[in-house]
């Protein structure tokens, strides 16, 4: 029982990171129908910029803020320079563009930063907290709490603010949104900034536990993409649930079956879910218009 | 279209035959062989992505199966490498048929993540089953034996030259088969379902069956490419099945022009040569590769060959 609780804690921690990446995917997908495979690089940038800013003597909270802002700016640049000019290109071309962007960002980080593994000090110490026979690191609570806060904030943003509703309108029908006077290009820019900032935040929160190097982005992008798909692409609730579930599957597999195959089980579960529910857990049914 | 097919094949054959005249050293034969291997896998993707309009982000998984069939079967089953290539083809085709049936119902990004999952599962098995595959360090591959056969017949060729011609011939056969398919009833049906699956099914095309056929055929192409790669290198690691390799071959196909075999081969030429040229600036390799991928997709969204062809047509 204790070990089960322990696995659940570690699963939730990892799952919260996946959920944040998946939320980033969701926001951009909703605004532009683009799956941004460079999403994992935002997480990497968040971690790397914080580490280097912190080493340069900037206090940790300020360094983290700097990382989030800079990454958001990079997200906007990605939209303006690579996504917007290719508007209307087929899915395969968009996939190649965003993967090209992720390779580009990785190549640039390798030059600007370095190829070493880096870590950040934990925000509230390293003394594990005992809960019912299992332990959890304070940093894990930061990660899980961060994911929940981001989710609630996004939910408030999308349902309570005019800008948020404009994003939803754009996601629903771009042309109709334009007709009622929504600046859909600005919405797209906003989505990339928001998505990159969330990715960077995930990087800042997770780096004390998972460490960061220039090449952590690919794996995170794949997991986040899978989590978003599991939940149903374009659905923030699906992204949160999909991310947490994926983390839990991995932790339970690693704990009870085989740590080597923990990622395999995650993908097998996703394949199984997609077979049964081709639109993911929370995805809306869609039919092809003739 | 009949002449066009033979023209394309003739141009390809002449290029393969004539290129060695320009090679200053044996090293270029190896690059040539590598280009042909990549082009073969990419030709398979032209059928799946270009004609049938389906996405695969996990085709390197089939290349991995072909490669490890050639590495494992001769060692453990005592099979001749040529038989091992066929075994890899059969396993790839079988697996493709098995997983293709459920996942080809998915569309767009969902199909992307399903195929990606398949590729990752293959990589993971190859990486983790150390006893069989040597794990991430890879394993050596037995020799094909044909070169030794040629030597006994009195023909002496170096490894690079042998593989250049062997891969070139296999690529020609692969391109010939693909072009035949393009002009067949099946090929037309595939292109019809790419246009609209609903419209295709209303005129009596068995859409799921055709998609599955395209998936299986392209898997076999990837498998043979993987086998040839393993045999000519004499060594193989799980990277051959990895996500980045899957992306590489999709990018080659789209870069050159995913609708045509010749375009796809052009894409393979460029993306295989690029890292060779960039070895001088190893530091900037990823930077340049990423930028090339983005720029081509923005400025030549239909790929190099169709865009160039369209430009030529516009000018009288």
From TrEMBL, chain A:
The chain crosses the membrane at residues 7-29, 58-79, 91-113, 140-158, 179-205, 238-258, 264-284. One of its GO terms (biological process) is amino acid transport. InterPro entries: ABC_transp_permease, BCAA_transport_permease. It is a multi-pass membrane protein. GO terms for cellular component: plasma membrane. Keywords: Amino-acid transport, Cell membrane, Membrane, Transmembrane, Transmembrane helix, Transport. It holds the Pfam family BPD_transp_2. It is found in: Cell membrane. One of its GO terms (molecular function) is transmembrane transporter activity. The keyword Cell membrane applies. PANTHER family: ABC TRANSPORTER PERMEASE PROTEIN, BRANCHED-CHAIN AMINO ACID TRANSPORT SYSTEM PERMEASE PROTEIN LIVH. Belongs to the binding-protein-dependent transport system permease family. LivHM subfamily. This is Branched-chain amino acid transport system permease protein. It comes from Sagittula marina.
UniProtKB/TrEMBL annotation, chain B:
GO terms for molecular function: branched-chain amino acid transmembrane transporter activity. GO terms for cellular component: plasma membrane. Keywords: Cell membrane, Membrane, Transmembrane, Transmembrane helix. The keyword Transmembrane helix applies. It comes from the Bacteria. It is a multi-pass membrane protein. InterPro entries: ABC_transp_permease (IPR001851), LivM-like (IPR043428). Its main location: membrane. The chain crosses the membrane at residues 6-23, 35-57, 77-99, 108-127, 162-182, 253-274, 286-305. This is Branched-chain amino acid transport system permease protein. Pfam families: BPD_transp_2. The keyword Transmembrane helix applies. It is found in: Cell membrane.
